[in-house]
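Re: Re: token formats

Sure, here are both.
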Amino acid sequence: NSNTELAEQLAELCISSAQRRMRAAKTVVRKKITQGPALPGKLTDCGCADPMQGELFLVEGDSAGGSAKQARDREFQAIMPLRGKILNTWEVEAGQVLASQEVHDISVAIGLDPDSDDLSGLRYGKV
């Protein structure tokens, strides 16, 4: 009973640390987008942390995007409205495809570089 003040300080430290850990466990873990370029503005992302559970829906136009956003499951479905029909990649050269803003936005949303075989940055399990 000689060190009651020290014991109280130690108990308060333990309690505050436990409360911080509980708050940290409750926070929703968002997908890490800090590395690499920013996501396209029209992308409505999903809330799941596991990329293999996430689904990306590419829809044609803003009106279809609005309907899809209302009907989606926010937990694992992401919506990206495209500006009309995108470039037909069978009929143009590779340089023209990579210069297209829509193709660039899709590759950024998916998390992959068009010229790379590396799948480590993949953000969705289904597209």
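Second one below.
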Amino acid sequence: MMAGYEKVRELRGDLPAIRCTNCNRLLYRGVAQTIEIKCPKCGVVQLFKGGERRWSKPGGALFGGVPRVVTDSAGRMVAIPGRPERVIALNASNLGLYYASGGNVVGRASTNMLPPDMAEQVRSIPTVGMPPCPDVARIIAMKPDLVLGMHAPMHHSLAAVLEKTGIPVLLQALEHYTDVLRILRLYGELSGNPERAAGKIEEIETRRRELVRQHWGNPSPKVLILWEIADGLYTALSHSFVGDLVKRLGGVNVADIAIDENLSYVPFRLEAFASFQPDVILLVNHGVESVTGTRFYQELTEQPAWQQLNAVRQQAVYQLPFHLFAVNPGPQLGDALGVLADFLYKGHVL
């Protein structure tokens, strides 16, 4: 049955069926001279004119070739240009990955998390505010056809506002090693440089394989990963990004032994992990470059219980480089793996 303007009528099966070319959802039956319709399933807007199917440009956004539908890390199906031409990246990781895949942006977040060469490369590109609080008006004024954001509450709210103006937003979570490779591949397709993205992926994978081969047969070190933020110390499990890398390099995360939960981080309690005697302690800090300025260092020097740990007695306590581990390293993933392997198997005290 279908609703007409005057009464409910039977849906005529002899009329031509018009379906979405992305998801095959039935859009309508019939013939129309000109009609623009949004697929209720995938959200792609299509224009039918004189029997010819075209892609429309809602809000001026979808003009980069034939659109495609992408499911982002938030589980949202987003219709985006097949070849976006005006991209804005709202955080350092997305910016680095898009550039590593051969893409360019017209706007970016203001951030100090970029490596020096990348920071110099994008210095002249207009900024749209800090990653946690982008300037919505400035973004809209730039007329982007794609915005790359984070799978985080503040960017979810931003996406809802931007998409009402016809600007598509991809919310990406870089929580694991494989996420970086997957998003690199996607960005290579969007930028029209799939070979360049594939080359970067192979470079990272080759580095990982080399590191595993170098340390094959060595005893697996027991590792305690600490994450320090403003409200205290947390322990990173293997579901976290750094925990995932440690596991891929052969380390045994003592938090996985002590805590049988599908979590990324839990509040740290020394008594919960002391009995597992970690061989290596790794610290990630979000605000201080020097380990001596951290809350962890204060606890280490003031609480005698820390001195009972093998890692402390052997001086195998390392602060991970801020620029590689405070946020996802993106295209510098190979460098991050190298630093971790060095700390896990050879060791350089910071």
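The longest strand covers residues 222-229. The domain at 217-345 is CATH 3.40.50.1980 (Rossmann fold).
- S.
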